[in-house]
Amino acid sequence: MNIFQSIINHKVNTITGRDLIKYGNQFQISITKDQADTIASYLRGKNVNVFDEAERNKVIKEIAKIAGPDTAQQVNRLLLGLVK
């Protein structure tokens, strides 16, 4: 894993609700404070590799349960943009 991948994975795995709202606004992803906090607490400490398709899909499915399928789809688009 290169340094770029490590930095992105670290950020995803240590993200806060406030960070999620900030990125959501930046990338036009609609997310409430409660959704952001719940998603962030789910991601924190999971040690997810967003560059691994299977792991990313698993995370997106969990986000869909938390924030709904539309938000999960938008988050997936954001992650896909980061990994390419």
TrEMBL record:
Taxonomic placement: Bacteria, Bacillati, Bacillota, Bacilli, Bacillales
Protein name: DUF2624 domain-containing protein
Superkingdom of origin organism: Bacteria
